[in-house]
Amino acid sequence: MSPERRVDHRVVIIGGGFAGLTAVQALRQAPVRITLLDRRNYHLFQPLLYQVA
Question: Where are the alpha helices (DSSP H) in the chain?
Fold first, then answer.
């Protein structure tokens, strides 16, 4: 018999906008390792920027 092999699934999401963050939330409970890549280390919620100006 062959020993059981454990397969670690990995998901890389490129872009931390609304779609990227939604994908992370959808996959959060899945048995996968999630990596989110974005050029910035923060999320800017642009729909409310007009209230700041």
Answer: 18-27, 49-52
Q: What is the pLDDT of residues 11-49, one digit of tens each?
A: 999 999 999 999 999 999 999 999 999 999 888 888 878
**CA distance linking residue 24 with residue 3, whole number of Å:** 32
Question: From CA 53, how far away is CA 41, in angstroms rounded?
Answer: 23
What is the model's pTM?
A: 0.69
Q: What are phi and psi of 48, to 5 degrees?
A: -100, 5
